[in-house]
Amino acid sequence: MAVIDKKNNKIFKGVLISLIVLAIASMVGIFTLWFKGLGVGSGGTSETWSHFGSFFGGVLGPILSFLSFTAIIYTVYLQSDSNKVQALANKQAAEDRLASEKLAIESQKDQRDAFQKRIKHEKQQQLLSFFINTFDELESLGCEAVQDLTEKNEVGLATLSYRTTSYAWKAHSTSLVLKRYLDKFDSESAEFIHIYATKCSGQINNFKENIEIYRACLNNSAEELARMLSESQETHRRFEDSLQILKDKYISIWEERSNNGN
To answer: What is the largest CA-CA distance in the chain?
Structure first.
């Protein structure tokens, strides 16, 4: 736009100078025509000078008016051209502003999406950390509970003690919490949970089977043993149900990730 304005100004100055030159040339030409053609000279009477004024004004006036009109028309043309250039500049500025606003909106959206992804990732990490710690505690309690099957009392019988009770309670509560949070895991977290939960489910089932095997060697009452076996069976079933739900939901994703080497 600056280049166009500079060019228009140069043209306008040229036209203006040309009009001034034409006006001066017209004045000189009319003055020469009067003095040379009509022979008034410098010593004419007031009447001849009056005639000269009338002739000079009558001939030169229309010429100067025409030149002025031409200058006005050209000025209007330049103004119109300048308005077009300004309109184009305003349009470009508006387009640039819209593009800038669009980029700003997209940037804000990207930042918002990135923030939400980060929050989601952090929640997954916290959830995964909680369950992994819980599964580790459960496995540790299971190892302690096994001692109840090997430690004998004074009459040579084993007794299921508080260690077995703590393990059974922890397994029971963990199976309930796991079932409640099944829809909170993403595919990656679910894969880790599936691995840990499978190991814990197997440990519970093995402990239950050992109680059944060594049932005759346990000093606990028949009712207590039956309740322990029933609770262990129910806990094991909940674990297996949760594992199946995770598998049905994410098995295709896990297999695809495995095939891709991820």
So the answer is: 164
Is there a single domain that holds both residue 32 and residue 162?
Answer: no
Average model confidence (pLDDT) across the chain = 82
User: Cβ–Cβ contacts within 10 Å for residue 104, how many?
Assistant: 10
| CB-based contact 226:163 (threshold 8 Å) | no
What pLDDT score does 151 carry? 83
Spatial contact of 256 and 187, defined as CB atoms under 8 Å apart: no
**Among residues 103, 111, 23, which one has the least CA distance to residue 63?**
23
- Provide DSSP, 223-251: HHHHHHHHHHHHHHHHHHHHHHHHHHHHH
pLDDT band with cut points at 50, 70 and 90 for residue 77: confident
Q: What pLDDT sits at residue 34?
A: 57
Residue 195 lies in a domain: yes
The whole-model pTM stands at 0.62
**46 has pLDDT over 60:** no
Task: Give kind and range of the element (H or E) at residue 77.
Answer: helix 46-150
Nearest 5°: the CA angle 112, 181, 258 is: 75
Of the residues 64, 88, 110, the one at which a domain ends: 110
